[in-house]
Design goal:
With 268 residues, the protein is of the alpha/beta class. The chain has a single domain, classed as Metallo-beta-lactamase, Chain A (4-Layer Sandwich). 26% of the residues lie in helices and 26% in strands. The strands form three sheets. The protein has a seven-stranded mixed β-sheet with strand order 8-7-4-3-2-1-16. It has a seven-stranded mixed β-sheet with strand order 9-10-11-12-13-14-15, with no helix packed on it. The structure holds zinc ion (2 copies). One zinc ion binds next to helix 1 and helix 8. The site of one zinc ion has 7 residues, from helix 3.
Amino acid sequence: MEFVILGSGGATATPRPYCQCNVCKKARKLGEPYKRNSSSLFIKDINGVIDCGEDIADSLNRRNIKKVENLFITHWHPDHTFGLRLVLESCFDFRTNKAVRRINVYLSKRVFKDLENKMNVLNYYANVIKVAKIHFIEHNQMVKIGKLKIIAIGYTGKNSNTFSFLFKEGKKRVLYAPCDTIRFAQKILNLDLLINECGLFSYKTVKSEISFPSLMNRIKELNPKRTILTHIEELELQNWGINYLRKMKNKYADSNFDFAYDGMEIKV
Ligand SMILES: [Zn+2]
Ligand SMILES: [Zn+2]
């Protein structure tokens, strides 16, 4: 299996508009790896994308992705879905008034409902301009695309509002859980790769997200062969310093993890 990190940024991408902090200035001046778009993953084997924030068009263009056939949605939050229009509508030709292609969109009914309440666009793309085909995939259900088996894992089981996706090919197993993993209550073992959100460094002030030390404990528990941490928040690096990621790697040297960056290629 081959993956590319399309975006490794947090709820607010880096550089953050208006911000004149060192992290944002550096990202503006030098681009990658300091620039981080919204969290998104490309799965080469199936021309698949997981999640699409507002900057997804830039993420796809930067990696010169030529086709997206399958789109998976973890949860409705804006940093994971507000780029739906750009992924889907790029398959529509307004001159002929026809869809050029349809993208398969995979999500649970609950996530679909949440999205319908917050930003009702999927019905339009699926039924009016027909650039999307919706497939509901629930907790523990599997879809097979090419050689890959993809299993939806609800964070809290049935009726979860947030999902991770488990990719299997032969004996290889990869789990992508990019956001809100404080509520992740599943024990997924024997992973060759875990791509997880980066825990918060500011856990003494913010209690609503998984703390970095708790995440380190969870990684010990799940014991994947390799871990990549994504969804890295600009405000965290602004506050703790751009070198803090390296400091954390040194501090937790006994854990086998790396921080993601935009364009990171991963083979499993
Ligand atoms: Zn900044
Ligand atoms: Zn998020």
